Structures are given as C-alpha cells and as structure tokens.
Amino acid sequence: PSLTRSAMPLPRHNPQRRRRVNVMGVLGRSGGPLGILVMSLTLGGLVLLLLIQGSLFWPDGDTSENWIFSNEIKEVKKIEEWEAQRKRFLESFQTNNAKSHEHICNNMPIGTTSKSLWVKYIGSIIRASQHPDDPNFNHENWTKQLLSTMTPSSLHRTFDHTSNPEGMSRILDIVRKRLENPNKFPPLRMAVVGGTFSEGEGCSDSSIVIPEGSIMANPSFCAWPYRLEAFLNSFILGSESKIKWVEITNMSEEGTDTGFMIPLMRNWIYPKHLLPHGPDIIINSYGTYDYETYGEGASNLKQTIYSEMTTFLRAVEASHPCGDVPMVIHIDDANIQLHEGMSKSHRKSFFSIFPKEPFDKAIEVDGNRQFSMAGHLAMMWIVSFGMAEAVLRHCDRGKSNPTPPEKLYNSPLDNCEDPSTGNPSCPFSIFASPQGTVTRVTQFQKYLRPYLTTNVGWEVLSDMSTGWSRKTGLVAMQQGAQMVLEVKNIMKEVRYIHLMTLKSNVDPWKAGKATFRIALLPPGGDGKFIETSFDISGYHETKDDKTKHVTHHFNMELQDQKAEVGSDIKVSVELVEGTNFKILGLMLC
Q: What is the rounded CA–CA span in Å between residue 377 and residue 365?
C-alpha cells in the first residue's frame, strides 16, 4: 500500500496548504488530537514563559546588547512619548485635583508594572543616566552596554515582595506637595548610610575614558547616591530643571558598619541641612564587605548583620516620638531576609532590596571589579527599580484600600521632645566627618573651647593620609598627652557614652593606646564623683592590604549610673602607649 500511495500524483502546489498538511501530519503522528493539544499547550506555555521573563523584549546573552543598540528609531519615539506623559503628569499638579494625597497613584496608568515601564521607556532611562559632567554623552554606548546586562526580570527579583510599607502614603504626599509648590515645600529628603562602596570607592575606575579634570573622578560626584539623585530628578523633572523633587545626602563612611551609625541615628547626629526634621527615607547600604572584620564563616556574618540591622531599626523608630518614623530601605547583599523576624511596627516603613544577581552581571562589563563605575551605575538602577516597585505596589493596594488623609501623619506623643522640635538629645556631641556635625578644624576647635579645661599635647588637625572621612580629628601628638573636658549642669539625661576613634595597621597610629575616664557628679550630692574607665587601642587587624584605616565605634551604656539632669560630667583622656591617637567623635547622650 505504501508503494501505491507514493506513486500517486502530487496535488497542485499550495504553500499554505502544504505547511498546514505538514504541521498537521507531524501532530497526527504525535498522537492525533491529543498530540495537537499537547503541542498547543507546550507552545502556549513557552510564549507565556517568554513574556513573563521579559525575554521577548530584553533577550539574555549577547543579543541583549543588540536589542538596545538596534532600536534607535523606536527608542526616540518612546523618549518623545515619555516627555509628553511627564509634562502632563507635572501639569496635573497645578490643578485642583492635585490636592489629594492619592494624586500620584491616580495618575498611574492602569495595569502598569515596574517591568513594563522599564522596557517601554528604556530610552528615557538611558538619557536620565547621563552624568551631568558628560554633556555630549560620550559614555552613551558604554551605558547601553552596561544596562543591557540587567534584564527587567532580574531587577524585579531584587525587590522584597513580602513587604508593603504603609508609610509610602506619607512619602508620596511629601512628593506631591513639592511638585505642587516647590517654593513652599521641601524636597523628599533621603540619607544613605553605608561603607566603602557607598562612599564612592572605585567609582571612577572604568574601562571607559574619563576626561582629565572631570568631577566624575571625584567620589562625591560619582558614587551611586549622587548618581541616584541626578537620575531620579532628571527622569521625572527633566535634565533642564532647576529644582529637585528628591535630595539625597550621602552619610557613608569607609571603614564603618551599621553599628557605627546606630548612635548617630538614635541621637540625630545629622548634617545641618537635614535638621531639624531629619530624613524622610534612610537607605542602609552596608554590605558584606563592610562587615568582613566580624568572625569567620557566613553564618556568623549574617547573624552580625541581622543583629545590627534590628538594633538600627529600633534606634530609628525610637528617635522620632514627635514625628513620623523615616522609611528604611535595606540593601541586603547577604540575603538575610530581615523581614522574617521583624515587628509589625517596623514593617510599616521598611523594605529590602536584594541586589546581588543583576549587580554581579553588570560588573562583568568592567572586568568583575566590584568597586567600579559600572558597579555604581548598576546600584543606581537597582535602587531606582526597587523604589518604583514599592510605589506601584502601594498604589495597587491603595486603589482598593486607600489611606485616609487623617492617618497620613502620626500624632506625636504628649509632651514629647526630639530634635525636630528644636531640642537636641545630647548635652555634648561632636563628630568630625564630611557629613558630621563639624567638617573643618576651626569648627572643631570652636565647639571644644567652652568645655576644655586641661590640654597637654592634643591638637585638632586635618590629615588626609587616614582617609577623606577621617581627615579631621583631635590628635595626641606626644607620649603621655592628656586632656580634660567638663560638661556642667547638663540639661538632658545622659545614658550613653559614644566614641569614634581611628584604628589602623600602619605607623604611627597602630602603636597608640588611650585611657578614657568618665566621672559623674550627681546634683545635690556629697561632691564625690562616680567614675568608670576603659582603654581603646589604635591598632586594627585587617584581612587585606586595602583596609589600612577604619573608624572604630565604642558604645557604653551607663545603666544605673546614668547622669541625671543637673549633673556634671568630666571626661579625661590620656595617651598611655605610643605617640599618636586620633579621636573623631564624642557624644554624651
């Protein structure tokens, strides 16, 4: 029979019918109607999978670069579309409808997702990523190459999808007021706390040429917090705008960790331009690199990060009895899943971002150098995407469960006092840092002068050899150097002693050791001081040759010996070993 069929004349050529017959024949041989069903489900599933992963729009592998580079005409059209939509969005704040705190959510396109926005407006994202000191955008192709490694799906996986911070309503209301009347209302204030990477380490290290004399080689203007501020303002307001809807202060200090920032957050030791109200959002970007001096093994490292982060959240929350607690964003490169053990009150103003997957992909562009310009740009995009995801999730929830206007801002506790009301929480606090309470030698000297009763061999100096963030400090210049500080008739109770000192593994700092004596004289007592003392070494043991200097933080809780209002406090410091020792900060809080 097969010979008979093969000898039959072929039908007239019909390409469409031929393709149909061939496909149906294959399906028929695969099991008839069942084969057709299986194949249909398989193809449908494949298409659905590609759509979910974003591969139809942003293919993985080498073709991802080609996708961005080969869509110039389409990219220009999308830029024009975004510009028109952005202008309509901003103009809407001048109408009466903008008075509602839900205005931003109400103007979001229905069904918008962070992935769809990222894909649709990739041209505008690239343009907003242009550094202000690169007017001709010489880095454009390099920027596209870098961004092509970061698929929207990988960015989507960086967000902690178990979180849904209620505090986002207040954040959006701050933004609404700023856009509605920038002359009356301040921008959204964000503070970044972190270590080596966030301060700007390696941000000018790149395979792309940086013009000589460009500010892109200055950590203050190439670190990812600076670029994040420029990106967010440019994307929403346009690159020509003279105002900002968001202002980011980089408080990062190389050689520190979260424990260093806890007393600063608890006691409002912020740069002056963040006072008296403090930041609206705090980004904690300390990474595993900044904790590497803690123990051996990942389990111990994660335990340290978890413990310090929970203490950090409590400190931030406790510092705001008279106002609203800042939202905290944790950049979690150790994947410690902080939300699992978090209290309900902390969850209201917190979410995590897990940057590792897209970050590792991006830094391959510059030879897998973690501290590089590629890494800083990647972190800028990762945080931007996470913030967009948080806003969109909030808006989706708000459409079915909107926040009443009267619940946008918390009611302060009765008779509360905090720095937002003009009442400093520490009778004595000085911290020398680019983002501390003092930055210059003269400022440090002026603050100390009313309290300094004895000084032999101590000087306030500025020395860049110990790092930019530790350049200014109170330095012992000779063996046996001594000084005494007296704070009399304190107007606030003191429960903690906080010290920031330099630790190093190089001469002359590593040989130093200082003895600190704290003496408390209670009001109305018998004239006897209650004393305690401790030693701090200037030596720092490091695991690599890069980390020569760190900022050491020492905290002491006075507990039963706390200084009551009206007490006198005397702080004596003596250099008992070596010839040099550097104090960066001292707080009595």
A: 12
The answer, yes or no, to whether residue 247 has pLDDT greater than 70, is yes
For 23, how many CA atoms within 13 A lie in the half-sphere containing its CB?
9
Cα–Cα distance for residue pair 307/302, rounded to 1 Å: 8
Residue 469 in 3-state DSSP? helix
For the chain, the farthest-separated pair of C-alpha atoms sits apart, in whole angstroms, at 123
Contact (Cβ atoms closer than 8 angstroms) between residue 284 and residue 330? yes
Q: Whole-number mean pLDDT of the chain?
A: 80
Measured in degrees and rounded to the nearest 5, phi and psi for residue 128 equal: -70, -15
**CA 504 – CA 541 distance, rounded (Å):** 8
Do β-strands 428-431 and 581-588 pair in parallel, antiparallel, or remain unpaired?
Answer: antiparallel
DSSP characters over 259-285? HHHHHHHHTT---GGGTTT--SEEEE-
Residue 311, Cβ neighbours under 10 Å: how many? Answer: 15
Query: Which H or E run contains 47?
Result: helix 33-53
Q: How deeply is 143 buried, as exposed, middle or buried, from its count of CB atoms within 10 A (0-12, 13-18, 19+)? A: buried
Residue with tokens 């990762």: 382
Please, are residues 302 and 334 in contact by the beta-carbon 8 Å criterion?
A: yes
Q: What is the pTM of this model?
A: 0.81
d(CA 483, CA 455): 4
Residue 125's Cβ-side half-sphere holds a number of Cα atoms within 13 Å equal to 25
Contacts of residue 328, defined as CB under 8 A and 6 or more positions apart, other chains included, come to 281, 282, 283, 284, 312, 313, 316, 349, 350
Whole-angstrom distance, CA of residue 475 vs CA of residue 465? 13
Extract the tokens encoding 321. Answer: 């009895």
* Residue 461, beta-bridge partner list: 473
Stated length of the chain: 589
Cis peptide before 225 (omega within 30 of 0): no
Backbone angles phi, psi at 341, to 5 degrees: -110, 20
Cβ 509 vs Cβ 479: under 8 Å: no
Q: Categorize the per-residue pLDDT at 25 as very low, low, confident or very high, splitting at 50, 70 and 90.
A: very low
3-state SS assignment for residue 134:
coil
Are 486 and 453 within 8 A, CB to CB?
A: yes
The model's pLDDT over 332-374, given as tens digits with 9 standing for 90+, comes to: 998 887 766 666 666 678 889 999 999 988 888 877 676 789 9
Short-list 540, 520, 546, 532, CA closest to 582? 540
Sequence-ordered alpha helix ranges (H) in 366-474: 373-400, 441-448
